[in-house]
C-alpha cells in the first residue's frame, strides 16, 4: 500500500510518502528541491553513479514512521545536499528547511 500525506514543517506543507512492502516500509518527505528518506536510500549511488543529476537528498536509518524521519539525525547526505548546508547529524526537519 502507498499512502501520501501532508507534512507541515514550519510554514511549509511538504509531501510525505509511505510505501508498505513485505517486511519493510519505505519513507520519504519531499520538497521541491530535494528529499529525506529512510535507510533504503543509497547515497553512494546518488553521488557516484547519478552525480550529474545533482540530487539533493539525505538519509536517516532506523526510522519506521514519517514522524520519526522528521526528528531523526541524518546519517548521510548527498554532495549536492552538503553544498546547500545540509550536514550529517542534522534532524530531518533541519535538513528539509534547507531544501525549501
UniProtKB/TrEMBL annotation:
Q: Which InterPro entries match?
A: DUF1805 (IPR014931), YunC_sf (IPR036493)
Q: Which SUPFAM superfamilies match?
A: Hypothetical protein Ta1206
Under what name is this protein listed? Uncharacterized protein YunC, DUF1805 family
- Annotated organism of origin: Paenibacillus polysaccharolyticus
Amino acid at each position: 500500500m502507498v499512502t501520501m500525506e501532508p507534512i507541515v514543517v514550519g510554514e511549509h506543507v511538504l509531501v510525505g510518502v509511505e510505501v508498505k512492502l513485505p517486511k519493510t516500509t519505505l519513507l520519504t518527505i519531499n520538497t521541491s528541491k530535494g528529499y529525506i528518506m529512510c535507510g533504503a536510500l543509497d547515497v553512494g549511488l546518488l553521488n557516484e553513479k547519478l552525480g550529474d543529476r545533482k540530487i539533493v537528498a539525505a538519509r536517516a536509518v532506523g526510522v519506521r514512521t514519517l514522524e520519526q524521519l522528521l526528528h531523526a539525525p541524518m546519517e548521510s547526505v548527498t554532495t549536492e545536499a552538503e553544498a546547500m548546508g545540509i550536514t550529517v547529524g542534522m534532524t530531518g526537519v533541519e535538513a528539509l528547511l534547507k531544501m525549501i
